[in-house]
């Protein structure tokens, strides 16, 4: 049975994008990138909102991870390419092989089905998608980068309290702090 995990890179003040929409502050150093690779090895499928899918898909399938790239990036690209990807969108009309479009109205039922059918983690990427599926999320992962951006898109834009219990915390040499939470 799969476990739904929502994880994103954030600023110390909890934003995945700064006020200008930029997220360059979340570019991982090698130690954090290796931790991400380790997580992807446990991943049964990626569940992306459309915007994050568009940020990830072309670079990791066509550009990044090729000859000359650092070994950690080449490894991530290989893992990414072989992991099934689901993009939740009402506007996309076509996607390449290895990617499945899920319409928003079907989101909860598809995730519930994947939880039953997929071994490994179902990694949600995208704050709005995560907010729409918050009741199905089993774990919350935060990679907090040592920067304060003062505003932007929050890690999880929900309008109610979600109680959590921290079950893991570790720091990286690069200054990033990782925290893993489950429901309280």
UniProtKB/TrEMBL annotation:
Domain annotation Bacterial bifunctional deaminase-reductase C-terminal: ranges: 3-177
UniProt-listed SUPFAM superfamilies: Dihydrofolate reductase-like (SSF53597)
Record-linked InterPro entries: DHFR-like_dom_sf, RibDG_C, Riboflavin_Biosynth_HTPR
Superkingdom: Bacteria
GO terms under biological process: riboflavin biosynthetic process
Pfam families linked to this entry: RibD_C (PF01872)
GO molecular function: 5-amino-6-(5-phosphoribosylamino)uracil reductase activity
Protein name: Dihydrofolate reductase
Annotated organism of origin: Actinomadura hallensis
């Amino acid at each position: 049975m799969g476990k739904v995990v929502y994880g994103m890179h954030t600023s110390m003040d909890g934003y995945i994008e700064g006020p200008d929409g930029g997220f360059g502050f979340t570019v991982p150093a090698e130690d954090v990138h290796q931790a991400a690779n380790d997580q992807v090895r446990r991943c049964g499928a990626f569940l992306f909102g459309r915007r994050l899918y568009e940020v990830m898909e072309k670079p990791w399938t066509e550009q990044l991870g090729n000859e000359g790239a650092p070994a950690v990036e080449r490894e991530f690209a290989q893992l990414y390419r072989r992991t099934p990807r689901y993009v939740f969108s009402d506007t996309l009309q076509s996607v390449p092989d290895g990617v499945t479009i899920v319409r928003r109205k079907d989101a909860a039922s598809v995730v519930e089905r994947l939880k039953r059918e997929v071994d490994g983690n179902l990694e949600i990427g995208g704050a709005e998608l995560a907010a729409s599926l918050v009741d199905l999320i089993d774990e919350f992962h935060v990679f907090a980068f040592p920067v304060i951006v003062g505003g932007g898109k929050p890690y999880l834009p929900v309008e109610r309290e979600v109680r959590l219990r921290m079950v893991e915390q570790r720091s990286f040499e690069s200054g990033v702090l990782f925290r893993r939470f489950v429901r309280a």
